[in-house]
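As agreed, record passed on underneath.
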Amino acid sequence: MYLRLSLILFISVLLSTPTISARTERALLIGLGRQEDPAWEKINGDRDVALLSSRLSELGVGDIRTLTNRAATKKAIVAAINSIASASAPGDLVYIHFSGHGQRMTDTGGDESDRLDEAWIPYDAYRAYCSKDRGEKHLSDDELARLFTRIADRIGPEGRLIVVADACHSGDSSRGSTSSGVPVRGVMDDFIIPGTQHDGHEARPSVRWTLLSACKDYQLNFEHPRGYGLLTYTLYEMWAELGKLSDNRAILRKITTKMRSSAEPGQPQQTPVLETNATDALAPLFKLGR
């Protein structure tokens, strides 16, 4: 009789305990090899997407969304990020990867001391101010911060949002070609919006995600000799090895050393940059599938 009552009580507790949903892993991979504006140099960002998509599929990531070239317009990128946010739930891991050109542009919010925002360059963004792009086609860091904040709100403190930018989104490097013939990402010239006033000072949202950039803002961001982004191919090659580490500093050291050893002889060095508030922020990405 005692055993029967105990069993009934045990089953009752199980039925009354809320179900804890498993973490969902989502990825949005954006890559551009060509642009609507012919002023931008041909690059290989679209090849990065295919490379990473295959790796994530092998690791069992079920929700992988991709945008390349003509499909990677400003509107489409914003819609895709918003869609990821809407689909996400507390505890999810979200990985967003951008491979393409980067450029500085006039700061319209007044939050930059140098009066220049950093921007990702979608397919329909133009290199210089014109009737086809008065700045609205660029994806500025301010806009990205608002989009990423929406995802962070959805996944909560137990979730992870990891962003990788294989482009010098500060605009201080280019992804055209150098005299050595090695493709480089971004442009030195800024996108200036005429007559823009800096009346207010827009507050920056607190960063609740992890951003891994391919280089410092004053360095060139080169491509790998195999025709992929140098950072992208380094992550692809070292994924399993990086998965054995947990500390950000150890992971960043490994990535930096590998990137420098993969560079062409005489190629200027570049140093990847990590922005995060958590000491183990990158580890969950490389531990996927484990």
